[in-house]
Specification:
The chain has 385 residues and is mostly helical. Helices cover 66% and strands 4% of the residues.
Amino acid sequence: MFKFKFSPEKPLIQYNKSDTGVIVSIILLLGLGLVTLYVCSADYSAARFRGDSLYLVKRQGICALIGLSGMIFIASIKLEMLRKLLPFMFLVSLIFCFLTFTPLGVVKNGARRWIRLPLLATFQPSEAIKFVSIIFMANIFEKQSRLSEDDRSVIPAIVGMFLFFLIILMQKDLSTSLLVLVTCMIMFFVCEKKWYYIIPVLIVLIPLGGLLIALEPYRVSRILAFLRPNEFLQTTNFQVNAARNAIISGGLWGNGIGSGLVKMDRIPEVHADYIFAGWTEAMGLLGVTIYFILLSFFAYRCYRVAYTVNNRFAAVGTFGFTTMIFVQSLLNCAVAAGVVPSTGIPLPFFSSGGSSMMFTMFMCGFIINASRYMEDGIDLEMKGR
């Protein structure tokens, strides 16, 4: 069993300069995402919002600006402040989650995942939980690194994983709850915890997952539709089949942005969970290649930060946030291509959705902050304690 070491026992220095590669990759992904949203939403926006073809792009742009402001703030503060704010962030996120069951909650397709706020149309509290869960796990693993081997306990981490899983699951969002749980389990593994502690989790999780799927008819229909792709073409498989056809029609070079805008009407809500199919139809294999090169470059630079910095909290948090963004991106693309059952998870930087955009940028702010903790020097933040 391989063991990955975060933060070896040697001093470090905090430079003012952040990792340029990380910042460039974030800006490129954000810019490409806004362009793709315009490509996939112009006709939809014009038809639904009184001829304003830029409606969704402008709304996404506002959320992106809020996210950028939060990213700059998180990238500028001491990471120790985030650790101190963790109880407050968890409490606020929990309150927002429970507000989904009040009159402020918005019900879509039988699920209560959103609340109405004065300035934002809707807000999805599970996105906040995703952010808090990684901070929580990084904080737990940093504390345990300062204890002797005999005193270490995995109970707080395991309890935390299940707690975040259940909080999101209460909103009937199984896909996001599983994403958070899997990300936390990966963090558990790479932080040198005994892998056999995961076995009890899996023993509980596997039958629980089957039960949760069986209890909701729409989840059962999605599984059946995935197993029988040539059936349910006018119901459950309609969107998946339309997305697959759009991807195939893109060919090598794509149909072009102009022609793609007309054809994308056949994919319902293409600007949301199936935006990858819209981009592929417009830009073809060339566009897919560009996207995956950017995503891979982003993941490489961020993982490089995680394994280079010597502040364990920064390293583990960076690894967790990078893994969550990367896995979620791959999962969304797999759903659009029909490789896995439909999940309803958005594509980071791309899908229309203010909550997802803002908290993705907040995660990037943490990674940029962490990239300033370099090797071979003195840990100024630790020295100041």
